[in-house]
Design brief:
47% helix, 339 residues, globular, 3-stranded antiparallel β-sheet, 2 domains, mainly alpha, 3% strand, single chain
C-alpha cells in the first residue's frame, strides 16, 4: 500500500540541480508525488476491472484528472488505437488523420465524420464536404471541439472556426508539413515544423508533436524535449518557492529524472506503465494536474491563474479500461499486475 501520511509542518526541500544550483520546494511538491502515485494506482485498479471506489482520496474520487501517463488518457488511447494505427495508407495519411483528429480532439466528432464520409483520407479530402458535416453537428446543438484546451481559430477567411481549421489542415498538407516532419532529426525539429503554422502556439504545437510521435512514422524519445503549458507553469509556481533561475523545461527534466528518488523519499509505491517510467510529457501534465488538485488540498498556494475551484466532476465508469500503446514501446499490458 502507498503511504498517504504527511506532516503538518513542512520543512523546505532542497533539490540539487546542475552547476551548483538548488531549487527550494514547497509542501505542494510532496503533494505532486503523492498525487502521481494515487492517480496511477486508481488507473491500475480500473484496468484490472476492480469495482469502484478506486481511491480513498476524496478529491480524486469527486473530480476528473488526467492520468499520470498521458498516453493512458481516454482520448489518447482512442487516437492511438482507432486513428493512428487503424487506418491504411502512407505515412502522409497517418499525419493527415492525426492532425484531423487533434484539431477537434473529440471522439464523437471523428466518429461522426467517419459515419458520414467513410474512411477519412487526405487522398479524398474535401474541405466543403467535411465542413458540411460539422455544420450539421453544430446545427443539432452538438459540440465539435473538446473542452480539454482552447483551440484558437486560424484567420484563413472562413466565418466559422471549424472551417478555418479544415483550411489550415489543407494548407499544412499542400505545404508539405508531413514530409518536413518525416525529415526531422529530433522531437524539437518536429515541434518547430508544427509551430510554424498559423494559430499553433507553443502549447498546441508540442501536444501535436507528442501525438505524431505515437505513430511509427517518426520515433523519438519522449525524454528528448518538452514545452510547459500554462497549467504546468502554475503548478511549478506552487511547487517551488525558488527555482534557482531554471527555465520551465529544465525544471520538468530535473523532476522527471529524479522521480524514483522522490517516490522513495516519501515512501510511495508507484506503479509504472508496465515498466515504462514517467517521461517529460507525463511530468509536464502532472504539474498541470497538481495545480488543479492543490486548489482544494492547498488553498493558500497560489498560481498565476488565480483559480480556486476544480470544474470537472468525475463520474465512475465500472467498465474495465483496456489499454493499447504504440507497439514500438513494447509494453506488455498485464491487468492487475503489482496491485
Amino acid at each position: 500500500m502507498m503511504s498517504t501520511s504527511s506532516s503538518s509542518v513542512h520543512a523546505p526541500i532542497t533539490i540539487r540541480a546542475s552547476r551548483g544550483r538548488s531549487l527550494v520546494a514547497t509542501e505542494v511538491f510532496d503533494t505532486y508525488w503523492r498525487f502521481a502515485a494515487k492517480r496511477q494506482h486508481l488507473f491500475m485498479q480500473r484496468v484490472a476491472g476492480l469495482p469502484p471506489p478506486w481511491t480513498d482520496d476524496s478529491v480524486l474520487a469527486q473530480h476528473r484528472f488526467t492520468n499520470a501517463y498521458r498516453a493512458s488518457d481516454r482520448v489518447s488511447q482512442y487516437l492511438i488505437r482507432n486513428v493512428i494505427y487503424r487506418g491504411h495508407g502512407s505515412a502522409e495519411e497517418v499525419f493527415f488523420r492525426t492532425l484531423l483528429f487533434k484539431f477537434f480532439n473529440r471522439i464523437e466528432t471523428w466518429e461522426t465524420l467517419e459515419a458520414s464520409l467513410g474512411e477519412l483520407t487526405w487522398r479524398a479530402f474535401d474541405v466543403e464536404r467535411y465542413a458540411r458535416v460539422l455544420d450539421a453537428l453544430m446545427a443539432d446543438g452538438s459540440r465539435v471541439y473538446s473542452g480539454a484546451y482552447i483551440m484558437p481559430s486560424p484567420a484563413l477567411g472562413a466565418e466559422r472556426k471549424h472551417r478555418n481549421h479544415l483550411l489550415l489542415l489543407q494548407h499544412m498538407m499542400t505545404d508539405g508539413a508531413a514530409k518536413k516532419v518525416f525529415r526531422a532529426r529530433s522531437l524539437r525539429e518536429v515541434f518547430e515544423v508544427v509551430r510554424s503554422y498559423p494559430s499553433l502556439g507553443d502549447f498546441l504545437a508540442f501536444q501535436f508533436t507528442i501525438d505524431l510521435n505515437y505513430s511509427d512514422v517518426i520515433d523519438f524519445s519522449e525524454m528528448d524535449f518538452v514545452v510547459a503549458g500554462p497549467g504546468a507553469r502554475d503548478g511549478m509556481m506552487k511547487c517551488f518557492s525558488d527555482t534557482a533561475g531554471l527555465d520551465h523545461s529544465d525544471i520538468i527534466r530535473l523532476v522527471t529524472e529524479q522521480a524514483e528518488q522522490h517516490f522513495d523519499r516519501l515512501g510511495l509505491e508507484f506503479h509504472s506503465l508496465w515498466g515504462r517510467p514517467l517521461q517529460l510529457i507525463d511530468c509536464q501534465n502532472l504539474f498541470c494536474e497538481v495545480d488543479k488538485y492543490s486548489r482544494v488540498t492547498h488553498p493558500n498556494a497560489t498560481g498565476a491563474s488565480g483559480r480556486t475551484r476544480i470544474k470537472q466532476k468525475f463520474t465512475p465508469n465500472a467498465a474495465p479500461a483496456p489499454q493499447w500503446y504504440p507497439p514500438k514501446w513494447r509494453i506488455k499490458v498485464s491487468a492487475g499486475a503489482g496491485l
